Task: inverse folding
């Protein structure tokens, strides 16, 4: 279904690039993809790297059957204004704008529109993303299937309610940054204890990658796998004790809560 569609991107940033790369790897023809991007340098890069069509004006991609809104939420108003009147119920609109609800988008358009909201994360750049999708009021089952197919090209996809999207944003949308910070701290700890930075970085990266893969493939709860590594009186339980004294578990939960709250605040953006 996706392979036969023309796809237009409003915005040509990192997430748009990730989706373009995934779609091309999934067999979508470059001729079927167009990108509206105001920065000439970025247009040139996308055109040369992926052989997709690039244009400056948003309205130039409005003829596409599927439109992907890939701009920052702060740019939502201007992006939607440039499309108003040229988008109708014949087109499917997929928004990856963080915090902007489907109702907000629907109410900003003079025509009836079919909206799917999505929250992918940056590992989509290496086809290892986690994306949650939800349907707007007028979206159909086939629209969700189309979105599922699109985001499956860059990783795993789950369907949630719109009320759960702020939680998704705080967990998986912002989650890579938490992992990067932890990875950096592990590397610094290795350097502090005598390893070269290159060696410490390689060990930290592979440790997190391997741990995630073990959870995914074993089907075991992370706590069970942690117990398997934690010997009585050993080094791991000593380290875990230090983490718990620093409220590690609660601190991560608080960080997600803060991101969820901010996502809710962004939901208040009005498109005028």
Result:
């Amino acid at each position: 279904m996706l392979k036969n569609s023309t796809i237009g991107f409003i915005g040509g940033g990192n997430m748009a690039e990730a989706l373009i790369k995934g779609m091309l790897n999934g067999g979508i023809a470059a001729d079927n993809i167009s990108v509206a991007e105001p920065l000439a340098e970025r247009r040139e890069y996308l055109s040369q790297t992926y052989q997709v069509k690039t244009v400056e004006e948003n309205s130039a991609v409005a003829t596409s059957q599927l439109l992907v809104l890939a701009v920052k939420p702060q740019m939502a108003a201007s992006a939607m204004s440039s499309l108003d009147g040229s988008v109708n119920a014949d087109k499917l609109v997929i928004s990856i704008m963080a915090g902007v609800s489907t109702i907000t988008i629907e109410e900003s358009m003079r025509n009836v529109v079919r909206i799917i909201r999505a929250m992918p994360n940056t590992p989509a750049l290496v086809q290892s993303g986690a994306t949650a999708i939800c349907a707007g009021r007028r979206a159909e089952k086939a629209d969700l299937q189309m979105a599922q197919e699109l985001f499956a090209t860059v990783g795993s996809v789950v369907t949630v309610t719109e009320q759960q999207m702020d939680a998704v944003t705080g967990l998986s949308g912002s989650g890579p940054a938490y992992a990067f910070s932890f990875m950096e701290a592990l590397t610094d700890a290795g350097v502090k204890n005598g390893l070269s930075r290159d060696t410490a970085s390689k060990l930290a990266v592979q440790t997190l990658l391997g741990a995630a893969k073990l959870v995914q493939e074993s089907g075991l709860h992370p706590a069970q796998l942690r117990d398997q590594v934690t010997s009585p009186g050993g080094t791991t339980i000593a380290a875990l004790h230090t983490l718990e004294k620093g409220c590690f578990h609660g601190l991560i939960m608080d960080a997600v809560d803060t991101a969820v709250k901010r996502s809710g605040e962004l939901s208040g953006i009005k498109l005028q």
Summary: The longest strand covers residues 129-135. The chain has two domains: 2-166, 175-264. The radius of gyration is 21 Å. The chain is about 50% helix and 15% strand.
